[in-house]
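From the shared-data thread, chain only:
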Amino acid sequence: MSYTEVMQSKSNENIEHIEPIELKDKPQVYSQAHFVRIKTGENENKLSLKIGRYKKVNGMKNI
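Structure, as tokens:
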């Protein structure tokens, strides 16, 4: 398993995320997992996971 770098959000110092992880890549669609950690207090964090399925435009990913 490879590890990725945790990055600070440019718009909010309480939000950290990693680059989206590609789950599947098909000819017309692809799916990704987005992990986010939100600092809500001194020792409190919330984790968020978004799994998205996206259409490709002209066979290319919308990034």
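The two ends are 25 Å apart (CA to CA).
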